[in-house]
Amino acid sequence: MPPTMETITSEQPTVPAEAGQADAAAPVVPRRSPLRAAIKTGRPKEWIKNVFVFAGLLFSGKFNQSHEVLEAFVTFVAFCLISSAGYFVNDLIDVELDRKHPKKRFRPLAARELSEATAKAIAPGLALVAIAIAFTVNWQVGLMVVGYGIAQVAYSLGLKQIVIIDVMTLAGLFILRVAAGASAVDAHASEWLILCTGFLAAFLGFTKRRQEAVSELHEGTSTRPVLEHYSLPFLDQMVSLVTTGTVISYAIYTVNSPLIGNQMMLTIPPVIYAIFRYLYLIYDRSDQRSMSGIIAGDRGIQGGLLAFALVAFLLLYVFN
């Protein structure tokens, strides 16, 4: 057999073989200090989702205005803190279920690296700081951060157990990020941009549910009750639907871009490539990483996003 070479189109499997998976019944030995455990629980790697806050800044042509950049950054920080507070709440609620999961049992709370009392103190502290920071931008951003926090708690308490509503809630959280970012820089968030954001968030939500369903099927576990209502054929249909919606809504937005009209259509190819590449990794390579893990670890998606950002910047700020 000829030697193989890992390339951007010929990857090695991104998930370990089942034989190498840890025994979920074995006790977890604490590995992290309380400080590191607290940071881990806050999921800083997931803060990448909050870059949607900068959409209004980029597409309104205000990226070269220092005050607006600062306001958008403060809003970004507020969403990072409120989302971390939500992760603390989620892990507190799911701690017993997480201890039965082959991977989630290594989360700091499930592994008893962080006490529940400490987590209960940190969560409201992060939320209060986030809300205070958000209100320094303007009252609209402040209220949206409050709404985001409430939606996160509602999601953790029960909405994530309701089929379809769980993904719709996640989509709403992404839309709040975009709306808050636009409000922070006094920009209008195009209806098509909001619609595209909703479809993209639903795309990420349904692909995540499919990853979880495949993982539980292979591992023989059942730690997320809502997955009992999601069959793989149904999830495949939903992924197909929201993928189509994402591409079409973004394409229509680029045709009617408020600043440069249909010149924004030049950003369509890298967007389509990044979406299709994401699907390829999940379906063909059985990638079980989170969205942030896939983006941080895949050169193809990184290249597509970089190309999108570069083309958009050149069109909006150099050639406009």
Give the overall shape. Answer: globular
* Oligomer status: single chain
Number of helices: 12
Structural class comes to mainly alpha
Q: How far apart are the first and last residues' alpha carbons, in Å?
A: 54 Å
Tally the beta strands.
0
- Fraction of residues in helix: 55-70%
What fraction strand?
A: under 5%
CATH architecture of the largest domain: Orthogonal Bundle
The number of domains: 2
Task: Quickly name the level 1 CATH class of the largest domain.
Answer: Mainly Alpha
* Named CATH topology of the largest domain: Tetracycline Repressor, domain 2
The overall average pLDDT, rounded, is 88
Q: pLDDT below 50 for ≥5 consecutive residues: which ranges?
A: 1-22
Query: CATH homologous superfamily name of the largest domain?
Result: UbiA prenyltransferase
Q: Main sheet? A: none
Order of helices and strands: HHHHHHHHHHHH
Describe what you observe in this structure.
- The protein is mainly alpha-helical.
- The chain has two domains: 41-188, UbiA prenyltransferase (Tetracycline Repressor, domain 2), CATH 1.10.357; 190-320.
- 63% of the residues lie in helices and 0% in strands.
- Helix 5 (116-137) runs antiparallel to helix 6 (139-157).
Describe, in short, the structure shown.
This protein is mainly alpha-helical. The chain is built from 12 helices and no strands. It has helices at residues 34-41, 55-59, 66-93, 95-98, 116-137, 139-157, 165-184, 191-219, 232-255, 268-283, 291-297, 299-318.
Key features of this structure:
globular, Tetracycline Repressor, domain 2, 2 domains, single chain, 320 residues, disordered N terminus, 12 helices, mainly alpha
